[in-house]
Amino acid sequence: MTTTGWLEILLFVAVVGSLTRPLGGYLQRVYSGERTLLRPLLASIESALYRLAGVKPDVEQDWLQYAISFLIFHALGIVALYGLLRAQSALPLNPLNLPAVAPDLALNTAVSFTTNTSWQSYAGETTLSYFSQMTGITVQSFLSVAAGMAVAVALIRGFARRRSATVGNFWVDLTRGTLYVLLPICIVAALLLIAAGIPQTLSPAAAATTLEGALQMIARGPVASQEAIKLLSGDGGGFFNANSAHPFENPTSLTNLIEVLLIFALGAALTNCFGRMVGSERHGWILLCVMAILFGLGVGGLYAVEAGGNPALAALHPDRPADLRQPAGNMEGKEVRFGIAGSALFAEVSTASSDGAVNSMHDSFLPLSGGILLANMMVDEVIVGAPGSGLYGMLLFCIVAVFIAGLMIGRTPEYVGKKIGSTEIKMTILALICVPAAALGLAAVACILEPGLAGLGNAGPHGFSEVLYAYTSAAATNGSAFAGLNSNSPFYNLTLALAMFVGRFLVIVPVLAVAGSLAAQPITPRSSGTLPTDRALFVFLLVGVIVIVGGLSFLPVLALGPLIEQLQLLSLTLY
Amino acid sequence: MLDAIMLILIIVCFALAIAYASFCDRLLQLPTGRDLLA
Q1: Could you give the CA distance from residue A488 to residue A391 in angstroms, rounded to a whole number?
Q2: φ and ψ at A513, to 5 degrees?
Q3: pLDDT exceeds 70 at position A244
Q4: What predicted TM-score, i.e. pTM, was given to this entire model?
Q5: I want to staple A206 with a disulfide (CB 3.0 to 4.6 A). Which of A130, A176, A218, A340 is the partner?
Q6: Where are the domains of chain A?
Q7: Which of B2, B3, B23, B28 to mutate to test the interface with A (most CBs of A within 10 A)?
Q8: Nearest CA of chain A to the CA of B28: how many Å?
């Protein structure tokens, strides 16, 4: 580990922290329909969109109407993207004359991008035309995150409102999130990335002659515009197969820092938006503090393990002093321009945030690091998370935490003035159980069926980790891959699509039900029986609940995969 | 043929999701302490 590496990580944390309040205030004004800097410019477009779609912005929806609007919108999105990918060969902007995407892969990709997962069983540059990338993948990246943010805002309203039958209007929240938040930030970010060297062109792949005289096709395209929303949305689907490890997606250390900032910015700001909307910014900072502790543990662990190097390689030089056996650390699968710190930071941010972009190959991380990456996803990606899903995931854990505390010390389960009753607990458990059920259940199926075993790139615990990582990534709507596994088969395409479906829609429905139930309640004044949820004690309680709930659900599989592999690596057994 | 199967899969999954939402709504309507199946 180096001082420069730690400074890079600290700089990232400082910038995210300093962006949280201004961006959180902006989000609160946007979703409350208040005046913002961009409102005079965009209000007429917003109104025109409502008129075009027949939406009455003043008419609010109860939670069920909100949920059904959400589901119908996504069903149409999946059908539209599926159709586009199947018809790709007949559509314009296809300079490489790429054929239609196979049905199972098209379904997997359509579900993946509409659920904000961006699991990719394909290589972008050799499978999708520019038209598919721009009007399919990029559009769904915008819409899926705008929908996720809308759900989080509906839940915030549940906490903030008193005796209300409604939680907002899904179509209005979707439009405002896209128009006032995502598009402006993405335009600025895309220009920044273009200035930093990322291509933005509709020209076909460049033909180059190598020094050996061979012809090499260098893929390019409208990368910067897709890159901006790929990162901001917590989507993570790369234009190229190598994702942000590709020099055209992430050419320098500076772009690496910009990219990780884009991934975390909105998710962190939503905690402040929550605090403002419930009338106590302190509650927002408490949530961010919990996220920061878990993030610190993850990135510190990753950096330490990877900088320590691979014991199997170090053992090749037993005659050298310990610090000279592998001085650069475990650089396998990492880009030299990012180094260990830049790779560890990106991997932690990507798996904690639900983004799923990668700038290094997670399959090449040491087993213990692979376990940390898995654990980030297994705790429902509440460590900032994707914009929207990270916040509502964290609020679900808050509900569990006050409920457990209430049982332990006899306090009334309340959170920000709302009583947590049996209904809220039932819905919360329904939501929290989806990710473990889908990830563990489908991973178990893949481990016993021939089509599942056929995709393995490695044997033993490493092979098991590959399968576990794939289904955890899909169910947690992360989308990053452990490499190794060949997932482009009908079996994996369909089962991973199912995991993504469960991890997104079956979680969001009970989240909205909680929102509806809470919104109908009055605000309970704080009393001597109220557990203080804006103090340091609650921070540690919440961290404990997240770790224990995640740990209890997933510890056995972590032991079978990365933990046993790490122990065997110490005895120089490789898989 | 495969396209039709995929389309049916999508419709069935979302129909189930909407049914799931209705189930959650029934749970919300239920007076505290009563069993849904009773």
Answers
A1: 32
A2: -65, -40
A3: yes
A4: 0.93
A5: A218
A6: 386-574
A7: B28
A8: 6
